[in-house]
């Protein structure tokens, strides 16, 4: 009787991240976690819950509320031979540590002539929910601008596990972007060896008429928009999940536009100088003749995020905005 | 005079500077190497061979030479951007250091770093850093790794008193003390943050006195006297190595040159600089040693001169990095995998 392979487990993004952290900690005693309230409290978004009981407070270290020290200590520990994973409760707090990320983590390898790097994973959470101006931001494009960093943002449990495992086994700093509203999203996760190399986009669904370029939380939005476009307007949309912003999978963008000839890029950050701008520039540089319409950007309104619910909703891109952008392009 | 400050007592204790075993000949050579390297660097900056910023530590040699003689080869070292002396005292080759200043491919950092970014990972000299205070938290990480993986190894992080006024100092000191990390915070207090006298920038200009806020002990030494530096470093390192936690060592010193080569030095009197030159750590040790054996002083001086002139010749003769290597070594691999993995 043939042995049947175990079917992929179904789990949430939160659990996929936790399981990957656990698996890598079991596999490699150099892996340590540090961050604010990741131990006894269990993590602000419960990602690390239980790990301190399993691995002890020396390997799952609560830190002071001092993000620059968190990242600086993680980078130094990586130089010294540990494999740290730092959690910065939210992306917003990464600004307090931006010098450590940009001037230190990203620079060490090149500035010192490739003698050593900083194999550190810096996890941070994008998101919103009436949290007002300083707690509702995403700076994906800022990080993706910096040579020396890898920047990845999963949208499924399988990619969360595969990208995180790749990040934890690599040799350079990785900005690992999570989204607070996606932690409970479910999906299949392959076995423990699953790696997703950086710089490879994923075709979520194939289509003929338009490509929706998305990543992180905008992937399920783009999928929902594609459903509506098909059902209500007879438009066959392709959905491309970038997964990795640096390096950006330029080949996948060009391949897709060769099939669809139209692109709408969806992001939750402000429009100006953003990921959509980079996608748009890339396509006009590499595939100008393939474009039947200008690349459209669906992005956040350029205001500091207000608290009031209807104002916040008006700031954020939604499924309606994607559908409208596609219809404007095709009509 | 070495002063020991305990967080638990109000008045500092005077520690006898017992360094009778110190080989002053070694110290003279170590300090002179730094002095001559930097003087030649300055000359070649003026000649256009060295570019960018060049921060000379001329006058401060007793600190790097003295403290480095107490550090162990397995200890971690990070410094601020005034790093030439620390690199040489750590054992980095003057040839490759000078080549780095010249921007050559044979430089310690492959011509990518320049004056402010000398490093040699094989000697655990993890580099000079140019964002004031930025390297202080890196040191906490190195000390953490040492504590976990190789007890007995410590991290020594060198910074100027100017860095003690930036938030990073507080974050690093607090984390180090909270986590009981083996770090020596070694402050080279030369009295000026660029052109601003410390008393105008710091509420408590004596950095050692701030140690009490973190429950750390501190030692304060005369950084113009290599015996004092060695004695204080021994005391402070013995404490840190014992595993009891971090400590601060503050060396009061003085730079005779400007902050960088571009500094017109409008902020201090020439008389002040001249007065401090009477405390020149290299000249004073040479004078002391000449009273013992002039010929030996001359021999060491000549050997150092030949070594440093050879460093300049090596730098001159070395090639610039090939522009085709421009994008090498930014990340190990774009796909994030480990080098060597297919």
Count the strands of chain A? 14
Distance between the termini of chain B: 60 Å
What does the oligomeric state look like here? heterodimer
Q: Runs of chain A with pLDDT <50, length 5+? A: none
* Biggest pleated sheet of chain B: 8 strands, mixed
Strands of the biggest beta sheet of chain B: in what spatial order?
Answer: 2-1-9-10-6-5-3-4
Strand content of chain B: 5-15%
Order of helices and strands of chain B: EEHHEHHEHEHEEEHEHEHHH
Q: Spatial order of the strands in the main sheet of chain A?
A: 3-2-4-5-7-6-12
Work out the number of β strands of chain B.
10
Q: Tell me the structural class of chain B.
A: alpha/beta
Extract low-pLDDT stretches of chain B: none
What does the radius of gyration of chain A come to?
Answer: 20 Å
Secondary structure tally, helices of chain B:
11
Taking the sheet with the most strands of chain A, its summary is: 7 strands, mixed
What is the string of SSEs of chain A from the N terminus onward?
Answer: EHEHEHEHHEHEHEEEEHEEHEHEHH
Q: State the helicity of chain A in percent bands.
A: 25-40%
Mean residue pLDDT of chain B: 95
Architecture overview:
The complex is a heterodimer of chains A (331) and B (342). In chain A, 37% of the residues lie in helices and 20% in strands. With 331 residues, chain A is α/β, with parallel strands linked by helices. Chain A has a seven-stranded mixed β-sheet with strand order 3-2-4-5-7-6-12, with helices on both faces. Chain A has a five-stranded mixed β-sheet with strand order 9-11-10-13-14, with helices on both faces. A two-stranded antiparallel sheet of chain A has the order 1-8. The longest helix of chain A has 16 residues, at 218-233. Chain A is globular. The termini of chain A are far apart. The model of chain A has no long low-confidence stretch (mean pLDDT 96). With 342 residues, chain B is an alpha/beta fold. Chain B has eleven helices and ten strands. In chain B, α6 links the parallel β5 and β6. Helices cover 40% and strands 13% of the residues of chain B. In chain B, the strands form two sheets. An eight-stranded mixed β-sheet of chain B has the order 2-1-9-10-6-5-3-4, sandwiched between helices. Classes of the chains: A alpha/beta (331), B alpha/beta (342). The interface between A and B is large, with 51 and 53 residues.
